[in-house]
Amino acid sequence: MTPGKTRTHLVWDWNGTLLDDIHAVIHATNAAFAEVELAPLTLEQYREMYCVPIPRFYERLLGRLPTEAEWERMDDIFHRYYAERRVACGLTAGAEDLLAQWKLAGHSQSLLSMYGHEHLVPVVRGYGIESHFVRVDGRTGPSGGSKALHMERHFEALAGVGGISPENSVVIGDAVDDAVAAAHVGARAVLYTGGSHSRSSLLAAGVPVVDSLGEAVALAETFSA
């Protein structure tokens, strides 16, 4: 490492970033839509319309916010169908090597996901990559919201780990909300086009947008200061 430079810490997103699960997400979303008689979406339509909080995404399609009862049913159906399809999903191309190489180079990395914490940890362990991270955090509390406050808590927990701070960190994710959460704590962000958003939607976040995780890591390295 060049004298005077600080090592960059990576905060990885899980769904749609490290885990190549967008088709499982589309399947589960369309199953939830059927509950309120919404037509199924194609991958392209989903990427153009998707946003958080999730009820707002549903509002774009329903023309109104779902009722509390509708939201609860749709959320339950989504997670049930997603769990069935997730088992067939693999890691994104190159992800495992990138994680191993980043750790081997002496850098730190962590994982923060809006997937429920109690489900996330055993799933990540099952893919054999848990040891690459200094911390793995999933969502606690209700689903469907923003990652910003979770990111805040993530960095509070990281504060005692080798001087990891937001200003020396880069969030790599597939959603505009990842950039919003990064900005909330003062971290940088790089967004990947292989997940939940179209390239045009990601570009609107005002941060770098890349087409591979390898590009994301290479770009993150240039942020060292």
UniProtKB/TrEMBL annotation:
It comes from the Bacteria. InterPro entries: HAD-like_hydrolase_sf (IPR050155), HAD-like_sf (IPR036412), HAD_sf (IPR023214), PGP-like_dom2 (IPR023198). PANTHER family: PHOSPHOGLYCOLATE PHOSPHATASE. This is Haloacid dehalogenase-like hydrolase. It comes from Streptomyces cyaneofuscatus.
